[in-house]
Amino acid sequence: MNNREDEALAQAAVDALVGQLALAPKPGLPDPRDLTARATRRDHSALRWSARALLPGLTAMAAAARRTGEPSARLRAELGAIGRSTEHTVGLAGGGHRGALWTLGLLVAAAALHPGAEPADTTALAKQLAAHPDRRAPRRPSRGSTVSARYGAAGARGEARAGFPHVRRALTALATARKQGASEPQARLDALLTVMSTLQDTELLYTAGPMGLRHVQAEARGVLEAGGTAADPGARALRALDTDLRTRAWAPRGSGPLLSGALFLDALGARGTARSTTGDPHRGLSP
Fold first, then answer.
1. Where is this region: Disordered (predicted)?
2. What CATH number is given to the structural domain containing 185?
């Protein structure tokens, strides 16, 4: 890979995050409807703006992986240092995206280690990276780690160390919905609901407790069991879930970054398919 390819990988990741932010209606999560809501306009605008501030850091992560060449402890330490610097930059641009930076950073690095790999291979490399401890990380516990320890939830760290199973489930849901004739936004919403239906979301555990988490999971499954968002009963169930979560002020924030990860891997697969059908022998993300 070269520098342009590192940036192209990072840009694909940022595009996936921006695409996730643009999706609506996302139950309990920021989406474009909030741009007309006086109370939350700044939040969603800041999220869209600050998402683009991830580009330099993700590019640096791809370059670090390319130079190192293996999912080693050394690379994990370098990714951690880049991640902390990027968090600071994103904070200056409006904040947010800590979960997306964790997910996309590991996946971008994994994709740089093995350009053109299948999604399962990329998530397997990300799993190997996440298995290494970041020895220079701050020792103070985060809210997510505290909630994970209290309830035995996997959390963002556990999701990565398991090879991002919810990213893989979201990819499967995307493919299934598309084959069944869903529009692209509907397919993405079905993928989001697939994640929400089983994810042990530490943000929900913090704000709503185990009972609230189970309630959200059951309602998300209900939308899918009603035929998904492309079916009228499923669309009605989605609207009801959205109203419910906004009324309760419950935000399943762990699901959004995982959908972004799935959209990133989906975009890489689409580009690889396009190259193979046009006869280009080079796989990867060369512009």
1. 123-154
2. 1.10.4200
pLDDT level of residue 268 (50, 70, 90 thresholds): very high
Q: Which domain covers residue 26, as residue numbers? A: 3-135+154-277
Q: Which tokens sit at 236?
A: 């009605």
Report yes or no on whether pTM surpasses 0.85: yes
Transcribe the chain into DSSP letters: --HHHHHHHHHHHHHHHHHHHH-S--TTS--GGGGG-TTTHHHHHHHHHHHGGGHHHHHHHHHHHHHH-S--HHHHHHHHHHHHHHHHHHHHTT---HHHHHHHHHHHHHHHHSTT--HHHHHHHHHHHHHS--TTS-SSPPHHHHHHHHHT--HHHHHHHTT-HHHHHHHHHHHHHHHTT--HHHHHHHHHHHHHHH---HHHHHHHHHHHHHHHHHHHHHHHHTT-TTSHHHHHHHHHHHHHHHHHT---TTHHHHHHHHHHHHHHHHHHHHHHHTT----S---
Give domain status of residue 130, yes or no: yes
Tell me whether residue 146 is in a domain: no
Query: Using one digit for the tens of pLDDT, what is the confidence trace for 92-148?
Result: 777 788 899 999 999 999 999 999 999 999 999 999 999 998 887 777 777 777 888
Q: Is residue 285 part of a domain?
A: no
- Counting the structural domains of the chain, the total is 1
